[in-house]
Structures are given as structure tokens and as C-alpha cells.
Write a structure and sequence with these properties.
Length: 342
């Protein structure tokens, strides 16, 4: 085997086992994920309610609402400016704000990439904006929901296309499962393992920044919407906002742990991750808050205490398990007498 072919086997081995059902699975997920996001958007709003049976029991109203909002989502320049302004802000915050540079796990080439860790941004500025200008000034995200969804989906599609075509330039390290030779599957699953622009790592940036924080921003906008509609805020929507914010802040506080997770170490970056990070997370995870914005749920003291107990217990299990997994992958397994303490 020549030196060139040996290097090719390391950087770009051919993928033979295709995950997610191969070509048909990639086509199915690439189609149904955007449709599901749109379904949640059009079938759950203050115009027609949020009943699961809506498309069957009131088909005409559902499709009329969906058609109108879908068309308007492409012409809502305010939503598009808001979304891409937010994305640019996140990029600039990564670039300008100080942060630690950490090494990721060793790649199969033996190299380790550097990652800038400074994800604790934006939430404070959003809270300050609401405090200064009042809740009514922050309902714009709720009011422009369909346009924001379409802008996010377009961004996900464009990024997936960019990283796919960029993966053919130079000797890129490809994901083991993303070099099948099938254009649709490789575009979906992600061909390049760590697509970058200079030191800006596209995959890790999208994992925790624009979509995850936008999830909480959409929740805050929903809380502001409920206040403007009813003059008060229910315990139900406050608990949703609290739990979601808790999860996001905790994720940002433990940002270094993602460097050992499968998304970063093993998966390429394609449409599967781009649509998940940029569109699925902020606009489906916030569905509870959107529903509660126009359908307040009032909980008694015992209801609040029961929910808090369940949440704290579940979150403790989630966080301790994730920290233990990260320690194990990083060679710091506290349960092994042979662990390397580093």
C-alpha cells in the first residue's frame, strides 16, 4: 500500500454500513423533520388552538391556517432579520468574548483540535431587555414564530450544503459513517467530521449556541405573550421556563463535556445535526410554552411541589450520569482503581 493510499484510508475510509436506514431513512428524516416542525407551528397557535385532533376534526381551518402562515413565513422580513441577526450575534460573541481554549479527544489521526469555550452568553441581555422595556416589547419572537421557523430551516439546509461541498476541498478528515458515495445520505449524515472555518468549529458552535439559547428566548417570549394577553403569568408557564432555562444554563456551564460526546467525536456534521440544532430544538422543545401562552394552567401548591420534586430527581440522575460518562471517556473513571487522575 502506498503512502498516499494509506493516508486516504485514515482520512477518508469508505462507509459500507449506513445508519438510520441508509438512503431511504435519510430521505424520510430529511422530509419529516421539517414537516413536523411546521405541523407544530401551524397546528398549535392562538388562532385555532392546539388540539391533536385538529387536522381531522377541523381540516379546512387547519390547512387554511397552514397555507397562510407558510406563505407569510417566507415574506416576513422582520423574522428573517431577527433570526439571522441573532445567529450573527452568536458568532460575534464566540469571536469577541474571552473564553478558554480546550483540547478535544484524540482524533484517529492522533491530532487534537482546539475548541473555544465561552457559551454563557445572551440570556442575561435578554432578561435585561425585558426588565427595561417591559413584557409587551418582547412578544415579537412569539408573534413572528412561523417566519423564524422558516429562516432556521433555510439556515440548516444551507449549512448542510456548504459543509458537504467543502468536504471535497483538500484532505479533510471524514466521518467513518459519512463517506458512502451516496450524495443524499452523505449530505444528511455529515461527510466531514469536524467542518471548520479557521478555528471556528461549526459543529460544536451549533450544538450549544444559537439553537439551544434560542429555545429559552422563545420561552421567554411566550411568557411575555401570556402576560400581555391575561395581565398575569401562570405557575405552569413559569415552571416550564424555569426548567428549560435550568437545562440550558447547566448545558452551557458544562460546555466542555460535549467534547467527549458522540455528536462531536464520531458523527459528521450534515443536515441531521444542522436541522436538529438550529430548528428542531428551539421550535419543538418550546411547544409547551407556546401552548401555555394562550392556555394558562394554574397549579396549586401541591402541584408545584410535586412537579419540582420530579424535576429535581430526574435532573440529578441526568447530570450525574453525564458527568460520569464524560469522566470515563476522558480517562478519569472514579470507579476504577486503575483510573488516571488528570
Amino acid at each position: 500500500m502506498t503512502q498516499h493510499s494509506a493516508a486516504g484510508e485514515v482520512l477518508a475510509p469508505k462507509s459500507h454500513k449506513l445508519e438510520f436506514g441508509g438512503l431511504w431513512g435519510a430521505l424520510f428524516i430529511s422530509t419529516t423533520v421539517p414537516l413536523t416542525i411546521y405541523y407544530f407551528t401551524f397546528a398549535c397557535d392562538d388562532n385555532i388552538g392546539c388540539a391533536l385532533s385538529l387536522p381531522v376534526t377541523n381540516t379546512d381551518a387547519f390547512f387554511a391556517n397552514a397555507k397562510r402562515q407558510f406563505i407569510e413565513s417566507f415574506t416576513d422580513t422582520t423574522a428573517w432579520c431577527l433570526y439571522f441577526g441573532w445567529y450573527v450575534y452568536c458568532v460575534l460573541a464566540w469571536l469577541v468574548l474571552p473564553g478558554k481554549w480546550l483540547e478535544g479527544l484524540a482524533l484517529r489521526t492522533g491530532n487534537r483540535l482546539q475548541y473555544k469555550i465561552n457559551g454563557m452568553i445572551a440570556l442575561g441581555s435578554v432578561s435585561l431587555y425585558v426588565a427595561v422595556y417591559g413584557p409587551a416589547a418582547f412578544t415579537f419572537a412569539y408573534d413572528h414564530w412561523p417566519g423564524l421557523v422558516t429562516a432556521a430551516l433555510v439556515n440548516a439546509f444551507v449549512q448542510a450544503c456548504y459543509v458537504y461541498f467543502a468536504s471535497f476541498c483538500g484532505n479533510k478528515l471524514l466521518a467513518l459513517g459519512g463517506n458512502s458515495g451516496n450524495v443524499l445520505f452523505d449530505w444528511f449524515i455529515g461527510r466531514e467530521l469536524n467542518p471548520r472555518v479557521g478555528s471556528f468549529d461549526i459543529k460544536t458552535f451549533n450544538e450549544l449556541r444559537p439553537g439551544l439559547i434560542l429555545w429559552v428566548i422563545m420561552d421567554i417570549s411566550c411568557v411575555c405573550k401570556q402576560y400581555t394577553l391575561y395581565g398575569h403569568v401562570s405557575y405552569g408557564i413559569l415552571l416550564v421556563l424555569f426548567f428549560h432555562t435550568w437545562y440550558v444554563v447547566d448545558s452551557l456551564a458544562h460546555e466542555p463535556t460535549i467534547l467527549s460526546q458522540m455528536d462531536i467525536t464520531t458523527d459528521g456534521f450534515g443536515f441531521m445535526l444542522s436541522v436538529g440544532d438550529l430548528a428542531w430544538v428551539p421550535f419543538t422543545y418550546s411547544l409547551q410554552a407556546r401552548y401555555l401562552a394562550f392556555t394558562p394552567v394554574h397549579l396549586g401548591v401541591f402541584g408545584v411541589l410535586a412537579i419540582l420534586t420530579l424535576q429535581v430527581t430526574g435532573f440529578y440522575i441526568f447530570r450525574t450520569a453525564n458527568v460520569e460518562k464524560n469522566d470515563f471517556r476522558s480517562g478519569r473513571n472514579p470507579k476504577s482503581p486503575y483510573a488516571t487522575q488528570c
